[in-house]
Amino acid sequence: MIQRRIPKITDLAPLMRFKTPELNAKKRRLDAALTIADLRAIARKRTPKAAFDYTEGAAEAEISLGRARQAFEDIEFHPSILRDVSSVSTGWDVLGAPVSQPFGIAPTGFTRMMQTEGEIAGAHAAARAGIPFALSTMGTTSIEDVKAANPNGRNWFQLYMWKDRDRSMALVDRAAKAGYDTLLVTVDVPVAGARLRDKRNGFSIPPALTLGTVVNALPRPEWWINFLTTEPLSFASLDRWSGTVADLLDSMFDPTVDFEDLAWIKAQWPGKVVVKGVQNIDDAKRLVDLGVDGMILSNHGGRQLDRAPIPFHLLPRVAREVGAHTEVHLDTGIMSGADIVASIALGARFTMIGRAYLYGLMAGGEAGVDRTIAILSEQVARTMRLLGVNALEELNPGHVTQLSRLQPVAAPLVDAALTVPARRAPVRTGALPKQTVSASAVVTSAPVKRAPKKAAPTE
């Protein structure tokens, strides 16, 4: 039979040690965030809908983004036991220089729209963490100011090739003179994707103060105070713009860029060249032949072609085919350190985080970016320990199995589809007007060589 007694004060004392309250509200909420999803929840509460949706959203039905994240969830790890994992090393060399973590901050556009500290917060946090920071062509801080914020760290510049080639290459020249060590050439944006959230929100630069945006802003006064009392939003690489984001992008991007142009760009840059937006094995092989230093498997965070290939699914084959010749990096859908470790195990040399970084920025400015990096770094180290590895070099495909919910159509059905004759235009009866076919109109199999376009054509 249980005997009860009145507890003594000395028995209660060890149970009544209260945690010292944290008076700093920002620190309190960031300390409570244990995952990137926690930071996202904070960011959503503190950021107006149009700005948050610009970060959160993707193209059309947002299927590509959902599939990319699902791919990381659908993995199975294979740990080894009884290994000494009292210490782990999470760094190695990327593009010829050391990094402390196998991830860096991806280039993001309109960043000061998300939170007023913008790229400076990211550059400062990256410098402290010893990881690269990438500035977008569509960034809202100048090339030189980002370099000043991260003077001794790894700064990468992401290039969109514009219709105005001279203007694009002037940016490349500025980045080289400022000491950026790597050029990320983004190649999956011949035109802007259909980002329907932005259209529905009327997302524009500068923000449009409609009745809806005013009502949405009422519980978020800090964002508006910061936005209205700091330097007006401008871009790292172009003049101020007044209009929708889609109009801006379509007015700039050049749909004629090809491999010949890429070779020309590479010849202008003194540092490392990485091509961002690779989505099939044939293009990856052509880039190796071109001599690029690295490639990023990416579908632009699901923001361009919906139903695009899943980069994480593409990774193992690309790594096998070209990994011995160039570095293979990965982005899209990464939301945890486990995602990063799985990517390294399947052959990636490096990964990049975009939304995860912006969630931290929106949740708490520079301190929020620090928290993003801390969460991912802790998760990377813990996952490695649980797998029984001490260093990134020990990770290999045997540590991960990709479990796929999406299976290709069975081979016999594909073969049958290929035997269907091509559709032809219906034959019209009656006389047709005679046409003169010039020699220049004849289509041949020989490639047409042309000089890269350095300036926008006159219309």
TrEMBL record:
Domain FMN hydroxy acid dehydrogenase: residue ranges: 28-405
Keywords noted in UniProt: Flavoprotein, FMN, Oxidoreductase
Catalytic activity: (S)-lactate + A = pyruvate + AH2
The protein's required cofactors: FMN
Positions contributing to glyoxylate binding: 54, 160, 195, 300, 303
UniProt GO MF annotations: FMN binding; oxidoreductase activity
Domain of life from the UniProt record: Bacteria
Record PROSITE patterns: FMN_HYDROXY_ACID_DH_1 (PS00557), FMN_HYDROXY_ACID_DH_2 (PS51349)
Residues binding FMN, per UniProt: 107-109, 136, 158, 186, 276, 298, 354-355
Similarity comment: family membership: Belongs to the FMN-dependent alpha-hydroxy acid dehydrogenase family.
Protein name: Putative L-lactate dehydrogenase
Species of the source: Cryobacterium lyxosi
